[in-house]
Design goal:
Blueprint: H1 9-20, E1 26-31, E2 37-39, E3 42-43, H2 50-56, E4 64-67, E5 78-82, H3 87-92, H4 99-106, E6 110-113, H5 117-125, E7 130-133, H6 148-159, E8 164-167, H7 169-177, H8 181-202, H9 211-223, E9 235-238, E10 259-263, E11 267-268, E12 271-272, E13 276-280, H10 287-304, H11 313-330, H12 336-340, E14 380-383, E15 386-389, E16 394-397, E17 400-403, E18 411-412, H13 421-428
Helix pairs in contact: 1-2, 8-9, 10-11
Length: about 425
């Protein structure tokens, strides 16, 4: 891995948090992701399942974690199963975790090779009455392939029909949404790497540059700072492209007079950051561009003040909608009559601001969390209002990552990244 070693205390603490919420006499199983094929013998780069990483720190394929706090054998209360390494694997693929290095990474003492799983699993299942399985219950999930977890669940239900099957997801969504100080440090590192990439661009962008050249500059800066690269597919949208919310082609030339919407951020140690900034190709915003920019900035600053413990996200989004409504009237994009005649399920402001303002962020860019429960200290959210005006070929979105605190406004993990229009212009025009 490119990232520096993570303190194993994080993963031990995470396991303790999960175990506390398990029912008596149950065990839980977490599987790594598959390596997905492309064609022939080509595969996609491996990405570890975030749940097994969260609980163990293991960032390796073909891994299994078993948690069984009431096991009669103390050695079986936490078990890691790993792909057995060898000299041949080390030559062809690189070194894999040994039993000793797995303990250093995870804090788990009992480590077996994967081929031992059927026997050991049969032993612990004979002792337990219920099993937690790990389904993907993210609200935006749309999985069409059968995952390693899916196959495991089928096997469990077939081989152990008398066991009670429980869901890990509600527990994982609750505990993962509250970030440990070590996690905050990792996310801060991701944000710092993103800052380095963004500052690099401010001296690079000029009329005639191509969107993919900007992407290349960011990739260079991210990789040289121990990131695997982008936390998500980058959006580098100049001019009218910025009005396409998930524009990812990044293949157009940036023209004088256009504004580039940059929704780009680095990952670090599997933790995401999520940044959006808008910069003028020429180095200066026009009067109209700056007016729209400052309207979005006003909404963002006011929205941040609402991310407080006890707030319900649905109420938060409604409040942000009213803030945006006011700014759109000032920009003469909607009228008071539009507001008066709007539909209850599609407010007038949605014509120019059609997406939500905030989402959980952590190990996933759109991280897991319980949307129906009040906001709590230790949660991290994005804040990303935007205004998109296709008829003007202008889209402005501004986004930072915010840590909710016990009291006061949230802490901005991206507080050092230039945000004010004037600050961006100054940096772009330095000799």
């Amino acid at each position: 891995m490119k990232y520096l070693p993570i303190n194993a205390a994080l993963f031990s603490t995470n396991r303790e948090s999960f175990v506390k919420q398990m029912v008596e006499g149950a065990l839980a199983v977490f599987n790594s992701n598959d390596i997905f094929p492309i064609s022939a013998d080509s595969t996609m780069p491996f990405q570890q399942h975030r749940d097994i990483f969260y609980l163990s720190g293991v960032d390796q394929e073909e891994s299994i974690l078993v948690l069984f706090p009431s096991a009669s054998n103390p050695a079986h209360r936490e078990i890691l199963f790993l792909k057995e390494t060898s000299e041949l694997i080390a030559i062809w693929e690189g070194e894999k975790l040994t039993k000793s290095t797995a303990f250093e990474v995870s804090g788990i003492k009992t480590v077996y090779w994967l081929q031992q799983f059927p026997v050991i699993f049969k032993q612990v299942m004979a002792e337990c009455s219920a099993i937690y399985v790990n389904t993907n219950e993210h609200l935006r999930a749309s999985t069409v392939v059968e995952t390693r977890e899916d196959r495991f669940i089928k096997t469990v239900k077939n081989d152990y029909p008398a066991h009670h099957v429980l869901k890990s997801a509600p527990i994982m969504h609750r505990i993962r949404s509250i970030k440990h100080p070590i996690e905050i440090d990792l996310m801060q590192t991701a944000c710092n790497i993103t800052e380095a990439g963004f500052r690099r661009l401010l001296g690079f962008v000029k009329p005639g540059v191509w969107e993919y050249e900007i992407e290349a500059e960011l990739s260079h800066e991210f990789l040289r700072n121990r990131s695997k690269g982008f936390a998500y597919t980058p959006i580098i949208a100049s001019g009218k492209n910025a009005c396409v919310l998930h524009y990812i082609e990044n293949n157009q030339q940036c023209k004088d007079g256009d504004v580039i919407l940059l929704d780009v951020a680095a990952e670090y140690a599997n933790y995401s950051s999520d940044l959006t900034r808008c910069i003028p190709v020429s180095g200066r915003f026009t009067k109209r561009q700056k007016a729209v920019y400052n309207a979005v900035l006003h909404v963002k600053k006011e929205a941040e003040k609402l991310l407080l413990p006890g707030v319900i996200m649905a109420d938060y989004h409604k409040a942000v909608g009213l803030l945006m409504e006011e700014q759109l009237v000032k920009l003469q994009l909607i009228s008071l009559d539009d507001i008066k005649n709007q539909k209850a399920d599609w407010p007038a402001y949605k014509k120019y601001f059609m997406h939500g303002t905030s989402h959980f962020i952590g190990l996933d860019t759109h991280d897991v969390g319980l949307w129906h429960e009040p906001i709590k200290a230790g949660m991290v959210f994005t804040c990303e209002p935007g205004i998109y005006i296709p008829e003007e070929g202008l889209g402005i979105r501004l986004e930072d990552d915010l840590l909710v605190q016990k009291t006061g406004a949230p802490f901005n993990l991206m507080g050092n990244i230039p945000l004010e229009a004037e600050a961006i212009e100054d940096l772009m025009n330095r000799g």
